[in-house]
């Protein structure tokens, strides 16, 4: 549908596809219309108070407000409804009979368009492929986000590694028990000081909860027990995300954990080596699975039953990342073809309710010349000497 008007709508602060198109953040409803007749130009409908700023910074040929396209019966006092009404009125005035849109279009807009007799067509690729291949500016934003994430990761792992120990083996910092919750709160505080938000919190998980790879962790942290720390913050200036996981052990690690850690390190490198344009997310994941098998460990899909005591990997190798922490495509079973310019997390892991968990995660840029790890960080589990 090359001649069809393109419609993206929602709140740019939370609708990342809309933000990616207009490069303008605002907390009220907005609508972007591309290829508008008769000139084929783009137009952004936004709250009147934001028009001046949008004209200076938003990526659109023209900027208007809902009042510029008020229907005969007037606009609703509800800003979201008024924006949808203005879109319908504009398209009606221009004689537009159909639009193409992406998967994030609010149903409010679709309903108003359909009520007006305007056909709404979903383009599955709209706002997906355009976000997969990153520009040089996006790579710089992601690298900065990952650099800050690494700084905070180092602080968190060192805080755990340098803790004191009470008579019950619980870790202490400043005389207080070091819990998963306390470390997560401190991570958020460090991130805020560096201009980052932590909207999804972090993971600081130890035994036995780490057997569930996405358990956030709870309760006291103990010496000798592996702790998986996963930090995935948002840069409040660029709106791009970091995502990094490391594992730390206070005191002496068990022999089984050391074997697990070595296996995960090798699997991560195997996956990174496989990240090439033209291969698939499935192939990268299979490289991870094969490497783990060489070290005596298995991949068991999350849909299958498993013994929590036995160390296994039960998730994909990674995912796309950008304006959202999780973006297409997946480095997992049936993962699609990989494009030059994409950025992925690579994060193999092993998890056991007895031996603990290991996950090591980095952000990798796929280039024609080979994979590039953005802001590399220490991968070991003894963080005492890491600065």
Automatic annotation (TrEMBL):
<dbReference type="GO" id="GO:0046872">
    <property type="term" value="F:metal ion binding"/>
</dbReference>
<keyword id="KW-0645">Protease</keyword>
<feature type="domain" description="Peptidase M24">
    <location>
        <begin position="141"/>
        <end position="368"/>
    </location>
</feature>
<dbReference type="InterPro" id="IPR001131">
    <property type="entry name" value="Peptidase_M24B_aminopep-P_CS"/>
</dbReference>
<dbReference type="Pfam" id="PF00557">
    <property type="entry name" value="Peptidase_M24"/>
</dbReference>
<dbReference type="GO" id="GO:0008237">
    <property type="term" value="F:metallopeptidase activity"/>
</dbReference>
<dbReference type="GO" id="GO:0006508">
    <property type="term" value="P:proteolysis"/>
</dbReference>
<dbReference type="InterPro" id="IPR050659">
    <property type="entry name" value="Peptidase_M24B"/>
</dbReference>
<protein>
    <submittedName>
        <fullName>Xaa-Pro aminopeptidase 1</fullName>
        <ecNumber>3.4.11.9</ecNumber>
    </submittedName>
</protein>
<dbReference type="InterPro" id="IPR000994">
    <property type="entry name" value="Pept_M24"/>
</dbReference>
<comment type="similarity">
    <text>Belongs to the peptidase M24B family.</text>
</comment>
<keyword id="KW-0378">Hydrolase</keyword>
<dbReference type="InterPro" id="IPR036005">
    <property type="entry name" value="Creatinase/aminopeptidase-like"/>
</dbReference>
<dbReference type="GO" id="GO:0004177">
    <property type="term" value="F:aminopeptidase activity"/>
</dbReference>
<keyword id="KW-0031">Aminopeptidase</keyword>
<keyword id="KW-0479">Metal-binding</keyword>
<keyword id="KW-0482">Metalloprotease</keyword>
């Amino acid at each position: 549908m090359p001649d069809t008007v393109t419609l993206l709508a929602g709140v740019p602060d939370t609708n990342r596809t809309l933000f990616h198109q207009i490069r303008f953040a605002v907390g009220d409803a907005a609508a972007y219309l591309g290829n508008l007749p008769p000139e084929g130009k783009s137009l952004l409908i936004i709250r009147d108070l934001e028009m001046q700023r949008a004209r200076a910074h938003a990526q659109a040929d023209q900027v208007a407000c809902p009042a510029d396209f008020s229907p005969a019966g007037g606009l609703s006092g509800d800003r979201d409804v008024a924006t949808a009404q203005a879109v319908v009125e504009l398209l009606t005035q221009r004689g537009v009979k159909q639009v193409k849109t992406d998967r994030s279009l609010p149903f409010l807009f679709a309903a108003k368009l359909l009520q007006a007799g305007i056909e709404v067509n979903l383009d599955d690729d709209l706002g997906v492929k355009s976000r997969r291949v990153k520009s040089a500016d996006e790579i710089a934003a992601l690298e900065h986000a990952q650099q800050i994430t690494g700084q905070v990761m180092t602080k968190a792992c060192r805080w755990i590694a340098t803790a004191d120990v009470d008579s019950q083996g619980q870790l202490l910092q400043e005389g207080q028990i070091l819990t998963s919750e306390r470390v997560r709160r401190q991570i958020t505080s460090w991130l805020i000081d560096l201009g980052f938000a932590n909207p999804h919190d972090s993971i600081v998980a130890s035994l036995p909860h780490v057997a569930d790879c996405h358990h956030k962790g709870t309760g006291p942290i103990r010496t000798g027990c592996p702790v998986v720390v996963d930090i995935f913050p948002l840069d409040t200036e660029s709106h791009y995300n970091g995502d990094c996981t490391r594992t730390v052990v206070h005191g002496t690690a068990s022999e089984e954990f050391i074997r697990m850690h070595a296996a995960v390190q090798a699997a991560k490198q195997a996956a990174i080596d496989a990240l090439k344009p033209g291969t698939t997310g499935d192939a990268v994941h299979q490289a991870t699975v094969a490497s783990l098998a060489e070290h005596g460990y298995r991949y068991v899909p999350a849909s299958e039953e498993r013994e929590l005591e036995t160390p296994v990997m039960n998730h994909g190798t990674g995912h796309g990342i950008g304006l959202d922490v999780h973006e297409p495509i997946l480095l997992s079973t049936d993962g699609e073809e990989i494009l030059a310019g994409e950025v992925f997390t690579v994060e193999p892991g092993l998890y056991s309710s007895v031996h603990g968990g290991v996950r090591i995660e980095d952000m990798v840029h796929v280039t024609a010349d080979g994979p590039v790890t953005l802001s590399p960080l220490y991968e070991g589990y003894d963080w005492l000497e890491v600065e």
